[in-house]
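Hi support team,

I've been running sequence recovery on a batch of backbones for a student project. Most finish fine, but this one hangs at about 90% for roughly twenty minutes before it completes. I'm not sure whether the input is malformed or the queue is just slow. I've pasted the structure tokens below so you can try to reproduce it. Let me know if you need the job ID as well.

Thanks,
M.K.
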């Protein structure tokens, strides 16, 4: 059975970059009729927070990315300890003592000498007596001893991938305070949970190489890997600094529709065009991991607005009736209201904005040269109630009286009544402008 997982660390809100990972794993599992696990990578007690676990779930629920079960790494520490013991017994684990500052110095020296900054395995050369002495003065931690061979796999996105293990530092698996680190926890989970496909960002390619070796050492089955390219801004600029402003909760607050976001993310960076889908089943059906490429993927948050608008415009009145009622539109006006405004909303929140305009009126926008014209025209507006013919009859009379026509006639009236240059057909909007009743 196909098993995938989305494995966020609950150390912050998830953003569009994380979503790409989550969505691809979700779509692969659903397309294959398999299982999608939400794995909370919370082995770091200092940085992990429960509020982020809740927020991640909330974001995924909002998008409809349902999981089959939740796993928490903090509840599986005994499994990681057992794996660590096994690796230690096999002689694949060694104790090291360098501080971050010392490691940094080593790295700089290597770079100065034009050598790759790979850990020099100094820990392996220490005698027992030296280790005892070092333990007295500082904490030790543990590295996995990589076999210096080429590590290869067929990446579902990157194709044949080969990494020379000698060019990679032996990964640290256990910290000085005993905390297990991501690499070993992830390997144990992927193996024991029967994960068959791991999709994650291209920043994990080196991790994958080391994880494959650890999996082999532990005797686990190696899943298939797919590394998607990282998102950049529209000009190809790094997005990392801006990702904080591209959290899913922010997009939700801005009124982005889940299906607009998912439609974009399921296709961006692939050879398939971005097409708005209204149903998750269609997204699942049309998803092909092999169609994605390794080139950085340009993401423009502005593209979500037209997709969101298009999604909303596609609803029938019946589908929106409850939401229209919820903003206070009386039943006898509700369908007319939807017909008038539906092409003019960009988010659901605009329903309330338009109804407010109908009931309270807009701040009129009147250009200096139109002040007299608008005043005279408004004096000619027949008393409410207005119907579909009122606008035509009124503007014809105003034209007659003032000699204005075309844009010079209609635009000042639209701006005076709605405060905007664009908007719905005025002949249909006018009967809904309750505010004019008071006149
Ligand atoms: N917690 C890791 C991360 O967020 C998971 C990476 C993985 O998918 O293995 O980067």
């Amino acid at each position: 059975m196909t098993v995938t997982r989305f494995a966020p660390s609950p150390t912050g809100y998830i953003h569009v970059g994380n979503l790409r990972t989550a969505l691809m794993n979700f779509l692969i599992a659903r397309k294959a009729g398999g299982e999608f696990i939400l794995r909370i990578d919370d082995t770091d007690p200092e940085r992990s927070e429960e509020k982020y676990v809740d927020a991640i779930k909330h974001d995924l629920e909002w998008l409809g990315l349902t999981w089959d079960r939740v796993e928490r790494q903090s509840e599986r520490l005994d499994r990681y300890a057992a794996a660590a013991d096994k690796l230690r017994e096999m002689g694949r684990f060694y104790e090291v003592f360098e501080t971050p500052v010392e490691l940094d110095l080593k790295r700089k020296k290597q770079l100065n000498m034009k050598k790759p900054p790979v850990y020099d395995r100094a820990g392996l050369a220490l005698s027992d007596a030296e280790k005892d002495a070092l333990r007295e003065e500082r904490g030790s931690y543990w590295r996995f001893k990589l076999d210096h061979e080429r590590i290869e796999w067929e990446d579902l996105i990157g194709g044949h991938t080969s990494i020379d293990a000698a060019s990679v530092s032996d990964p640290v698996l256990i910290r000085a305070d005993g905390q297990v680190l991501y690499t070993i926890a992830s390997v144990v989970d992927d193996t024991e949970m029967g994960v068959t496909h791991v999709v994650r960002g291209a920043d994990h390619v080196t991790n994958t190489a080391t994880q494959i070796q650890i999996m082999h050492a532990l005797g686990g089955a190696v899943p298939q890997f797919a590394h998607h390219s990282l998102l950049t801004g529209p000009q190809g600029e790094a997005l990392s600094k801006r990702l904080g402003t591209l959290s899913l909760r922010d997009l939700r607050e801005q009124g982005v529709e889940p299906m607009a976001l998912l439609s974009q993310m399921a296709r961006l960076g692939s050879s398939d065009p971005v097409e708005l889908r209204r149903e998750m089943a269609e997204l699942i059906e049309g998803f092909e991991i092999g169609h994605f490429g390794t080139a950085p993927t340009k993401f423009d948050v502005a593209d979500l607005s037209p997709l969101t608008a298009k999604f909303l415009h596609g609803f029938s009145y019946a589908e929106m009736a409850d939401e229209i009622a919820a903003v206070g539109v009386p039943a006898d006006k509700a369908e007319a209201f939807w017909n008038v405004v539906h092409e003019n909303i960009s988010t659901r929140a605009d329903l309330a904005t338009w109804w407010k305009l109908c009931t309270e009126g807009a701040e009129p926008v009147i250009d200096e040269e139109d002040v007299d014209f608008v005043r005279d025209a408004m004096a000619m507006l027949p008393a409410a109630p207005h119907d579909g013919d009122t606008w035509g009859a009124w503007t014809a009379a105003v034209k007659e009286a003032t000699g204005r026509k075309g844009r010079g006639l209609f635009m000042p009236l639209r701006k005076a009544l709605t405060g905007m240059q664009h908007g719905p057909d005025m002949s249909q909007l006018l009967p809904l402008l309750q505010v004019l009743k008071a006149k």
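--
Follow-up from support: It reproduced on our side and the slowdown came from queue contention, not your input. Residues 144 and 170 are 5 Å apart (CA to CA). No action needed from you.
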